[in-house]
Amino acid sequence: KYSLQLGDMLFSHINSDFHLGKTALIKNQAQRLIHGINLLLIRLDKTKVNPIFFQYQFKYKRKQGVFISIAQKAVNQSSINQSKLKNLDFVLPPLSIQDTIVSKIDELFSELDKGIESLKLAQQQLKVYRQSVLKWAFEGRLTNENVKEGELPEGWKIVKLKSITESIQYGYTESSSKDAIGPKFLRITDIQENRVEWNDVPYCKITKDNKKKYLLKDGDLVFARTGATVGKSFLIKGEIPEAVFASYLIRVRVKTEINERFLSYFFLSPIYWNQITEGQVGIGQPNVNGSKLGQLDIVLAPLKDQSKIVEELENHLSIADKMEESIAQGLQQAEAMRQSILKRTFEHSL
Predict the structure, then answer these.
(1) 3-state DSSP call for residue 59?
(2) Which distant-in-sequence residues (6+ apart) come within 8 Å of 3 by Cβ?
(3) Residue-wise pLDDT tens digits, 140-195
(4) What phi and psi, each to the nearest 5 degrees, are found at residue 155?
(5) Contact assessment for residue 315 and residue 100, using Cβ atoms and an 8 Å cutoff
(6) pTM for the full model?
(7) Fewer Cβ close by (within 10 Å): the C or N end of the chain?
(8) Residue 11 burial by CB count (10 A; 0-12/13-18/19+): exposed, middle or buried?
(9) CA dist., res. 168 & res. 186, Å (int)
């Protein structure tokens, strides 16, 4: 009853909205395979239906939100019963026309896939380029092409982080609140893609003395000290709302003779990440504590060179940002083109 045959389609009918309506087509003869209770088995009459034609039609309906619209909502999941699925309208031209349509869609999608593959390769190359630029910057080679491999420019040195900081401090322990009961309460989860949407950051209760102790200011660096983002840093810059930082963050406040932007870029470099990965401690999930952070080796250029390095880095990385934006737009356009092909196929056939 539950064994799968060549050409069968599996339909996800009980799951989160993210998975609801996904399909899988059995394209190879699989012996003694069975399917789970969250999947409906759709066995098509292959004398009348090309299964790939129907799978494309299912993909189109899913993208149009058809399955979500007919689903019954429950806690954390949605479901579609067989009756609702059976009553959906599907386009069914003669089998020979289905075969022709499938052949044309496959051809168009193949070209799209080649373009997408090239764009994704370019994305990966940009990531490598970013890391290379950051590495060159802190080897001195980005601003001095005469620097030899394995050496630092004259006047550069390697110092411990603790020697150039005013303080390395753990954050404040308290529950967050959506109500404005105190200052903003910055948490690890509020830092996404090197941005903080301060309007979305919650608040916390705090005494006057503690607020003074944990208050963030322009130039502070905060680090995730545990969890999946351990070691990631964020530079507090510009005018921000009154805010303190939570206990799973470590704040590093550098001395005034250090360009904090120079240091923030160092914390993005492979030189830093090689150290932080080796310095992870903990059981169950990685973490980095304040004392280990203070022992990190920092490549430090003379102050007069730090601003120049920051400027060069920002020039190179801004070009990479623009290229990445163009690639992202290209990927969006490719997906829109894919949906346009399906739309022309199935809507114009009605």
Answers:
(1) helix
(2) 32, 33, 34
(3) 999 988 898 889 999 999 999 999 999 999 999 999 999 999 999 999 999 998 89
(4) 90, -15
(5) no
(6) 0.79
(7) N
(8) buried
(9) 17
